[in-house]
What we know:
The structure holds two protein chains of two kinds. By secondary structure, chain A is mainly β. Chain A is built from no helices and eleven strands. In chain A, about 0% of the residues lie in helices and about 50% in strands. Chain B is mostly beta strands. Helix content of chain B is about 0%, strand content about 55%.
Amino acid sequence: DGGITQSPKYLFRKEGQNVTLSCEQNLNHDAMYWYRQDPGQGLRLIYYSQIVNDFQKGDIAEGYSVSREKKESFPLTVTSAQKNPTAFYLCASSIDLVRYEQYFGPGTRLTVT
Amino acid sequence: GQQLNQSPQSMFIQEGEDVSMNCTSSSIFNTWLWYKQEPGEGPVLLIALYKAGELTSNGRLTAQFGITRKDSFLNISASIPSDVGIYFCAGYNFGNEKLTFGTGTRLTIIP
Lengths: 113, 111
């Protein structure tokens, strides 16, 4: 079955630690995205990538970093510089940047204490 | 930046009732998408709209792309318990390279 997987589903970290969230897709999509969702709010774009080895900052990139070494994978690192890292993180993909239908993974809930 | 306003923010309805929600923007969009999100899960794409005035159905769901291109509407007919969740609209315009999401409409079905 084609789809997007995110792991783990729940992640707990101590303040000051970096943490990397995994996102893998087997849809053969070129474009991938990371969003952050806070309770009662919409989705805010962190980073996106339209092709391997290329990525762009979204609206709230500060305190986050990404890499795109393979088409299938787009990991997100939440660094210690992110002031409010506790949130629900969603990865998505689309065929490319101009086919706008984005498909989402199941999400990772990160709690930092 | 662009903003999408969804209304209502929440709805409490009885099973079997029809549901209407809408999304409005201060900017023109070329594409409208509607998603449903259940608690603790990722959003699932329900309907995509590409032309002003377009009306598209997916089972009991019907969505319309407003003629002004600044709004979209989603209707759910004969609601059932599994319709519970948060419905998000999202808009896209050429040259922006990213979707703009609304803040969601939370649908609750009263037994």
